[in-house]
Write a structure and sequence with these properties.
It comes from Echria macrotheca. This is S-adenosyl-L-methionine-dependent methyltransferase. Keywords: Methyltransferase, Transferase. Helix 5 links the parallel strand 4 and strand 5. The chain contains nine helices and seven strands. It has one domain: Vaccinia Virus protein VP39 (Rossmann fold, 3-Layer(aba) Sandwich). Strands 3-2-1-4-5-7-6 form a seven-stranded mixed beta sheet. The protein is α/β, with parallel strands linked by helices.
C-alpha cells in the first residue's frame, strides 16, 4: 500500500513534529531574500511555503516529492514563487548543476533508498558555496516506535512479508562518510533532542502512518493490518500516562557547504 489522499491530508493536520524539526534546521541555515532553494521531500508543502516567505518575491523555491497525493495539496498553495514536481532525491536531473543556493532535506533522508547517490545530486545542484541542510532521525538512537514496529512485524504471520523500501536512519559516522564522499568538506552536525507527544496509542499510530505514507505496517497485506495495529496498540499502552505518550527522539541536524 502506498500513499493515499486520506494519509496525505492526515499528515497536513499532524506533522507538527516534522514542521518544528524543519524550523530548527532553518534556524541554522543562512537563507536570504532572493535565494533559490530546493526542498527535497517537500510533502504537502507547508515548510516550502515558509521558506518562500524567507526568500521573498525575488527568490524561488522548488519542492520535489515522490507522492502525487502530497504534491496535489502542495500545488494548491497560492505562493507565486513556489513550484512543485514529482521526483526522488536520487534523481535531480531536471535541475541544472549549480542552480540552487540551498538544498533543504527535512525528515526525508531515511526514506531515500540510494543515499550516496542522493548526496551526490545535492552537491551537483548546489552552486559553489551553497548550503545543504539535513534533519532526520539518528541511527545512533532507537526510538520506541522503531522497537515496537520491529517487535510486532517480527511475529507470525507478519514476518513472512518483507518490507519494501524500508527506512534507513544513518548513524553520525555514516552521515559524515557520505558528506565527505560527495565533496562536502565544510560541515557541522548537531543533535536535536525532541519529544513527540500523542494523546494515546491510536493517536501515535495515526501519526506514524501518515508520516510514513502508510508504511507503518511494513509489507504486510491490507487484511492483516488491523490485527497488527491492535498488537501495536497493546505495546504502546505501557507508555500511556495521564499526559498521554511522550516519546524521546534524536535527530541529526547537518549544515554543509558545497
Amino acid at each position: 500500500m502506498g500513499d493515499t489522499r486520506e494519509l496525505a491530508e492526515g499528515y497536513t493536520l499532524a506533522n507538527d513534529t516534522q514542521y518544528n524539526a524543519g524550523l530548527f534546521l532553518l534556524s541554522r541555515l543562512d537563507i536570504q531574500p532572493g535565494m533559490h532553494v530546493l526542498d527535497v521531500g517537500c510533502g504537502p508543502g507547508n515548510l516550502t511555503a515558509y521558506i518562500a516567505r524567507l526568500v521573498g518575491d525575488g527568490g524561488r523555491v522548488v519542492g520535489i516529492d515522490p507522492s502525487e497525493e502530497r504534491l496535489a495539496i502542495a500545488k494548491s498553495l497560492p505562493d507565486r514563487q513556489l513550484s512543485f514536481f514529482q521526483g526522488k532525491a536520487e534523481d535531480l536531473s531536471r535541475f541544472e548543476s549549480g542552480s540552487f543556493d540551498v538544498v533543504f532535506v527535512n525528515s526525508t533522508l531515511h526514506w531515500v533508498q540510494d543515499q550516496p547517490r542522493a548526496m551526490r545530486e545535492f552537491a551537483r545542484v548546489l552552486r559553489p558555496g551553497g548550503q545543504l541542510g539535513i534533519s532526520g532521525g539518528s541511527g545512533d538512537f532507537v526510538a520506541i516506535h522503531e522497537r515496537i514496529k520491529a517487535d510486532v512485524l517480527g511475529r507470525e504471520p507478519f514476518s513472512a512479508y518483507q518490507e519494501v523500501e524500508p527506512p534507513r536512519f544513518l548513524k553520525r559516522a555514516e552521515l559524515e562518510g557520505l558528506l565527505e564522499a560527495a565533496g562536502f568538506r565544510e560541515r557541522t552536525i548537531v543533535v536535536n533532542n525532541i519529544v513527540k507527544k500523542a494523546r494515546d496509542a491510536d493517536d501515535m499510530i495515526d501519526w506514524l502512518d501518515t508520516s510514513s505514507s502508510g508504511k507503518t505496517y511494513g509489507g504486510i497485506p491490507l487484511e492483516l493490518r488491523p490485527r497488527a495495529r491492535e498488537l501495536m496498540k497493546r505495546e504502546w499502552e505501557p507508555f500511556v500516562t495521564d499526559e498521554g505518550i511522550k516519546m524521546d527522539m534524536e535527530l541529526l541536524v547537518t549544515v554543509a557547504v558545497r
